Structures are given as structure tokens and as C-alpha cells.
UniProtKB/TrEMBL annotation:
SUPFAM superfamilies: YjgF-like. InterPro entries: Endoribo_LPSP/chorism_mut-like, RutC-like_sf. Residues 6-146 form the Endoribonuclease L-PSP/chorismate mutase-like domain. This is RidA family protein. Signal peptide: none annotated. It comes from Rhizobium jaguaris.
Length: 155
């Protein structure tokens, strides 16, 4: 399965980044039994925060979806680090919690988080389909436009 996932990443032209180190007093992941809990990931690209600001003012829906895709890539990078490099150990993505920095009038958080949901389903197939929340926030750390955390069932 890991080879299939790596092949799908290559086919989609996605190179996962190195898993980012925590920016504060927390760990990037916790494994408890057969569950992998991943800390919130920001839209980091090439070692820097790629998309900042508020949806509905500074960032449009397409930009928010790109931010969510980057968060999903960073989620997979953290999972890969947690699982000793073997993404094939992912049995199911159980849940994503998506946080979208947005103006009060913005009501398309669900469309923004689709960027992550679609990417994970495209890479992992049914294993990547998940329950989720898409929540509007007044602000996120470092002025990030999107932050997403995840819970996965693992082998």
C-alpha cells in the first residue's frame, strides 16, 4: 500500500515536505493504541507560511483551498514521520478539523476545507475519506489563513 500511495503522490506531482518541528510547547503527533493524533498543520511551503490573512478580505476561496491542500500535505508529512516513513500504515483518516481565518460575513469555510478533503481522497482513495469540521475563526497562529488537524486509524 505504501508503494501505491507514493506512486499516487508522484502521479499527482506532489512531493511531501519534511515534517515541521513544533513552533511551541507541544508534540507534532501522539500515537495512542491504533490512533494517530496529528497537531494542527499550517499552510507551509518551502519552509515558510505560504498563505496568510482572512478569507473574505485578503484571500479568496481558491487561495483558501490551496492553503487547505498545503495543510493536508503537511498532515501527510507528519504522518509519514510518525509511521517510520510508511504511509501504508494508514488504515483510515477518521476526522479532520479545519479552521479558517475569516471575516464574520464569510460563510464558505466548507468549500475552503474541501481543498484538504479532495486532496486526501485523491491520494488515499476511500482510506482518505473522513468526517470533518470546517470552522470560521477570527485569527490563527502567525496570521495563517487555514489550520487543520487530523485523527487517523493506523496499523
Amino acid at each position: 500500500m505504501s508503494d501505491a500511495i507514493e506512486g499516487r503522490l508522484k502521479e499527482l506531482g506532489i512531493v511531501l515536505p519534511q515534517a515541521a518541528a513544533p513552533a511551541a510547547n507541544y508534540v507534532p503527533y501522539v500515537i495512542s493504541g491504533n490512533l494517530l493524533y496529528l497537531s494542527g498543520q499550517l499552510p507551509m511551503e518551502n519552509g515558510r507560511l505560504a498563505i496568510t490573512g482572512l478569507l473574505g478580505r485578503d484571500v479568496d476561496v481558491a487561495g483558501g483551498q490551496r492553503a487547505a491542500e498545503l495543510c493536508a500535505m503537511n498532515i501527510l508529512a507528519q504522518a509519514k514521520a510518525a509511521l517510520g516513513g510508511d504511509l501504508g500504515r494508514i488504515k483510515r483518516i477518521i476526522k479532520l478539523n479545519g479552521f479558517v481565518a475569516s471575516v464574520p460575513e464569510f460563510v464558505e469555510q466548507h468549500l475552503v476545507i474541501n481543498g484538504a478533503s479532495n486532496l486526501l481522497a485523491n491520494i488515499l482513495g476511500d482510506t482518505g475519506k473522513h468526517a470533518r469540521a470546517a470552522v470560521g475563526m477570527a485569527a490563527l497562529p502567525l496570521n495563517a489563513a487555514v489550520e487543520i488537524d487530523a485523527i487517523m486509524e493506523i496499523a
